[in-house]
Write a structure and sequence with these properties.
Elements (H helix, E strand, L loop, with lengths): L1 H16 L6 H20 L7 H25 L4 H18 L8 H14 L3 H31 L4 H22 L6 H14 L1 H11 L4 H8 L2 H13 L5 H20 L22 E2 L12 E2 L22
Parallel strand pairs: 1-2
Helix pairs in contact: 1-8, 1-9, 1-11, 2-3, 2-7, 2-8, 3-4, 3-6, 3-7, 4-5, 4-6, 4-11, 4-12, 5-12
Length: 323
Amino acid sequence: MLIGMVTTQLGAAFAKHLFGTVGPASMTVMRLGFAAVVLLLWWRPSVRQDRRTAVAVAALGVAIAGMNICFYLAMARMPVGVALTVGMAGPLAVAALSSRRARDRLWIVLAASGIGLLGWQGGAAGLTGLLIACACAVFWGSYVPLSARVGAVLPGGGGLALAMAFGTVCSLPAGLAEGGEALARPEVLAFGFGVAMLSSLIPYTCEMETLRRVSALVFGVLLSLEPAIGALVALLVLRETLSAAQVLGLAAVVVASMGVIRSTRPPREAPAALPDAAVPGPGAPVPVPGAAPRTGPVAVVVPPAATPSVPTSAPSTQGTETS
C-alpha cells in the first residue's frame, strides 16, 4: 500500500513539474490517453453496447476527465496535498450521506472545517484554486456511483477502458489547444507516459495484492492517509510547504475520512473480494467501500456503504494527480 500511494503521488508531483512545458489540460490528455491505451489493449472490450450501457460509460468518462483536469488545474495553483485533500471531500461526502445515522453527518462538518483551513490562501489565486478543487470534489463524488454502475453492467475492466477512452476524447480539444506542438515532442510524451504508469500501473498492482490480504476496512483506512503522503512527497520533490493551519486542516479531513470508513463498515469483517472493474484517479482513483479517493487526481474513491461490489483501480486522478 505504501509503495502504491507513494508512486501515485510521485506521478502527481512529476506532472506538476511538467506544467512548465505543457499545461494541466495537456497533461490530462496524456495521463488519460496512455492509461486508456493500456486498458484497451489489456481488456479488449467491445465497442458495441446497448444505449443504456453506452450512456453510463459516457457519463463515467466525463466524470473521469472532469476530476483529472480540475485536479491538475487546482494543483497548478496550490500545493499538491491541499488540492488532493479538498478533492477528497466529494467521495467522503457521498459515503457520509449514504449513512442513515445523523451523527455520521458530523464527519462532513469536520471535513468542511478542515477544507476551510486548507483551501484559503488569500487573494484571487487562492480562491480560484479552492473553487477548482471543489469542482474536482464534485466530479470525484459523481464518479463513485457512476463507476459502480458501469462495473455492474460490464464485467472486468472493459467498462473502465471505454470510459477512459471517452474521457480522453472529452479532454482532447482543451489539451491540444493548450499544448500545441509540445505534445508532438518525444521527450514530453515519454514523460507523460511515465506519469500515467506511476499513477496507474504500479498502484493498481500493489492495491490488487493488498486486497488479497486485508479487509476492505483496513484498505480504506490506509488509503485515508493519501493526502498526508501527497503533502510529504510534494515537500520532498517540489519543496512545497504547508502552513500550520493547512496541516491542521489536512489532519481534520484525514480523521473525518477514517471516521466515515469505520461508521460504514459491514457488521462482520471479511477479506475484500477482488473487484470486477478497474478505476483511474486525479492520480488513479480506486473505489473501495469506505475508502478515500486516489486522484489522483488518476486516483481512490469513497463509494456508498450500500454498494455491494465496487471497481478498483487499474492501469489508468483522483484523482485523483486528479493523482
